[in-house]
Specification:
Distance between the termini: 43 Å
Structural class: mainly alpha
Number of strands: 0
Length: 93
């Protein structure tokens, strides 16, 4: 195992910290170890969904055919994606 040299700083409220501390105690690990393991497990799950997926032969053919079709404009999609969302409003304030 290599030495850990990188740090990640997080800001959290008291309720979040209390929950993480309770969960780390329940698993018998330090807060840092619990947060690191939980975060890396979640990251691996997110990435796994984007790296590999299995299809039977019929679904693979349909998928492959869809990839080979030329791109099409979807009415209103470009405009929809260029407008602010509720998430953008949250970042502002």
């Amino acid at each position: 195992m290599s030495a850990k040299a990188e740090r990640l700083h997080l800001r959290l409220d008291a309720e979040q910290r209390a929950m993480l501390e309770a969960a780390s105690e329940a698993t018998g690990s330090s807060l840092s170890a619990f947060v690191l393991r939980s975060a890396t497990d979640a990251a691996a799950g997110v990435l796994a969904d984007r790296r590999a997926f299995l299809l039977d032969e019929q679904d693979w053919r349909a998928f492959d055919e869809a990839l080979e079709r030329p791109a099409q404009d979807v009415g209103g999609l470009r405009e929809l994606l260029s407008q602010p969302t509720v998430l953008d409003a949250r970042d502002q304030g």
